[in-house]
Amino acid sequence: MTFDAAVSPLSSHRPVPADANGSRAVRRPSSAFTVLAHSIQEMGLMRRRYGYYWTKLIGAVVVLAGWVAAFIAVGDSWWQLANAAALAVVMTQIAFLGHDAAHRQIFKTGRWNDWVSLIVATCWSASATAGGSANTPGTMPTRTRTAPTPTSLCPRSP
After folding, report:
1. How far apart are CA 3 and CA 12, in angstroms?
2. CA 147 – CA 155 distance, rounded (Å)
3. How far is CA 54 from the centre of its chain?
4. Which band of pLDDT confidence, cut at 50, 70 and 90, is reported for residue 133?
5. What span, in angstroms and rounded, lies between the C-alpha atoms of 25 and 17?
């Protein structure tokens, strides 16, 4: 559906010609994006892909379980670097799933998307911070900030 600028009431002072039924309805100009968006919708490219997302969600759990088994099997070795690279790829894919769920692109209902995004974000952030210190600034008690530990109690004090 293209728009002829010569018959537009916005761009010309000529009257809008009658259509086949004799109606003189004013046609709005449509942009190229609108035409493209309608054709994409008609082809079904914007419909939800439940099979794809369920496969990725279940696959992420299976791959993480396999990664844990590989982590234990490899033990204390330089091969853990390959294991870390594999975990980076898996965690990136899980982050993409959380992103799609947070934008409510996976399921029709907001409740399902919210739950998936909450679970994925919790698992992702828990595993991302598992190697961090237990005394991060958000978790330290207030009293340790206001009164530092005496040097006599520090194990490394001279």
Report:
1. 13
2. 18
3. 15
4. very low
5. 9
Domain positions in the chain are: 5-43, 50-128
If pLDDT is split at 50, 70 and 90, which confidence band does 65 have?
very high
- Kindly compute the dihedral angle of the four CA atoms of residues 9, 13, 15, 16, in this order, to the nearest 10 degrees: -20
Tally of residues, the chain: 158
Report how far residue 129's alpha carbon sits from residue 115's, in angstroms, rounded to the nearest whole number.
21
pLDDT tens per residue, range 71-107 = 999 999 999 999 999 999 999 999 899 889 888 889 9
67-100 b/e with 16+ CB inside 10 Å = b? Answer: beeeeeeeeeeeeeeebeeebeebbeebeebbeb
